[in-house]
Amino acid sequence: MGDxxxxxxxxxxxxxxxxxxxxxxxxxxxxxxxLDIENPLTSMVMEFYIDPVLDDAGSxxxxxxxxxxxxxxxxxxxxxxxxxxxxxxxxxxxxxxxxALLPYVLWASLGEVAEDAEMFDSTLTxxxxxxxxxxxxxxxxxxxxxxxxxxxxREMHPEHKDNSVEVVSSILILAQFVLYGSSISNSEVxxxxxxxxxxxxxxxxxxFTPWFFRGSTIYFSHVQRVVYFVGLGGSMIFFGALSSxxxxxxxxxxILWPLxxxxxxPVMICITxxxxxxxxxxxxxxxxxxxxxxxxGMTEDDYQMLPESSSxxxxxxxxxxxxxxxxxxxxxxxxGQVLDGLATWIGIEYFGYQEKHLVxxxxxxxxxxxxxxxxxxxxxxxVIWYFFAVANFEHRERHLRLLVGLMMLVVGMAxxxxxxxxxxxxx
Length: 427
Hints:
The structure is a single chain. By secondary structure, the protein is mainly α. It has three domains: 1-90, no CATH class; 92-248; 251-427, no CATH class. 75% of the residues lie in helices and 0% in strands. The chain is built from 17 helices and no strands. It is globular and about 70 Å long. The model has no long low-confidence stretch (mean pLDDT 91).
């Protein structure tokens, strides 16, 4: 366990208090509405938040200036508050945590594409559009993490812990298969004649994911392994649903070439950045250092006061810009922005799609070109790399560093994957 309330940073306290206040207002509005008490708070919540979500479940309406700004503010507050919670629980703050969470970006994207294809019945449709999809994704991360944390705290033989991880992960994947499978099987699209055999085969196979991939997670903690397995298994379930959908549509509706561009280019960026930075990262690691993370007990002011000849400062300043490229929190966030830019460009220029996110649409209008948006997103990727190359996080802020990177990764990669998924199956 880590900090008490008094030991939290001020920005963490403010973020927690702000989230509590926002939640209280939101649920008060819903409660007043359920009691049929007319009031401006309920009217505002329904107009700007609830109705757009319900409209988005099938019509791509969903965004306005008010809810866009609110979502951005709440996301920033959540990042700050969650960093304190993870530190308090003693969750690993290494790059492995980003890798363990990566399947949930795919989980959310595939789930949204399945909703775009109208594969869920009316009971779940609204949970697969923004912001519902993000809360639902976070809920599975919390559930998986809670089980993993419980296993990690138990006194038992390591082999028994490993077995517990795999059994619990399979049960949680099975729960997803049953929950989402029942909704998918009752949807109008499936009733129209879609064969769910591919979904059944892939979904059942997903239940055994923890055993298939156990060897690839030997460097993960028990918490990270449960989180990773549950996200990966859930992604396979949605992939299975989309496979059934794809098998039911005409072949000329399936277009695979966007995948080669939208996925291929970011993968090459990740490989290139890692190869360029791995030597520098290894040099820092040999001294127990990570670019952008100050040694324990050192503040930003302490670091700036160090003489340039200081051994720690000298080696950090020498390698930090190159080393930052080799960290997953950086190269995944950078490639995610490029992925989103490429998917948007191809979707608009070649398939006649329209951008529904207000900020992105405004950027495209200013750039007067969808490809101009791609270049701007690539430039944002450079800014992200530079931020992590020069920023200093205190040792106690390691979780904040990870979550900032995860936020940048999600806002780029998730919509990009959704866009290319829609292109491929023609929805």
